[in-house]
Amino acid sequence: MAAGGESIWSFVFKFFNFAVLVGLLIYFVGKPLKSYLAKRHQTVKTQLEETQKALKEAEA
Predict the structure, then answer these.
(1) Residue 60 and residue 53: Cα distance in Å, rounded?
(2) What's the total number of domains in the chain?
(3) What is the pLDDT confidence band of residue 3, given thresholds at 50, 70 and 90?
(4) Does residue 39 lie in a domain region?
């Protein structure tokens, strides 16, 4: 037994379960999340450009 009272196999099993969970999340959520973030990036970039343009027009 380890100092915490759990066996090494308990730790290995928890680590394996966590790794499987992360792998499944990446597999099923990876592409939609990447697509969403790319669209969001473009939206924010466009809004910033429009805001800068409006600011320059207001200053003129």
Answers:
(1) 11
(2) 1
(3) low
(4) yes
How many Cα atoms sit within 13 Å of 5 on the Cβ side? 0
On whether residue 21 sits in a domain, the answer given is no
Q: Write out pLDDT tens, residues 11-53.
A: 999 999 999 999 999 999 999 999 999 999 999 999 999 999 9
Which domain range does residue 45 map to? 30-59
For residue 36, what pLDDT is reported?
A: 97
Dihedral (Cα; 24, 29, 31, 35), 10-degree rounding: -170
What does the alpha-carbon distance between residue 8 and residue 13 come to, in Å, rounded to a whole number? 9
Answer yes or no: is 44 within a domain.
yes
